[in-house]
């Protein structure tokens, strides 16, 4: 029910809503279940990886002297490189990938190895 105050008691009329008598039940609120995070990565590592991938694309664009879309189909898998035991093997793998490039690739390879040094592998955590 609504009750209106008279103008004598307040400068503006106000409306008050009252609950019907006899019901003291709280209104039913939907119960929300908490979601479980199944995959969790470190944001800082993701940012490093994104920056590295952008740097690789820019370097390959310069090396192949073309636009990003025209770069020959090659995939530099950072996780694969991180799995390798030494920089010598990593360098050899990257050189194999860019073997058809006519420009010198030594600077690119050494800078790439410097950039991935200390990075963590982004593998998907196992579900518990």
TrEMBL record:
Q: Which UniProt keywords apply?
A: Acetylation, Phosphoprotein, Protein phosphatase inhibitor
Q: Name one GO cellular component term.
A: cytoplasm
Transmembrane annotation, as ranges? none
Protein name (record): Protein phosphatase 1, regulatory (inhibitor) subunit 14Ba
Map out region (Disordered) in residue numbers: 1-33
Show the ranges annotated as biased composition (Polar residues).
1-12
**Family membership:** Belongs to the PP1 inhibitor family.
Q: Mind listing the GO biological process terms from this record?
A: innate immune response
Q: Name the species this protein comes from.
A: Cyclopterus lumpus
Q: Which InterPro entries does the record match to this protein? A: CPI-17, CPI-17_sf
Record's superkingdom? Eukaryota
Q: Which Pfam families match?
A: PP1_inhibitor
State a single Gene Ontology molecular function. protein serine/threonine phosphatase inhibitor activity
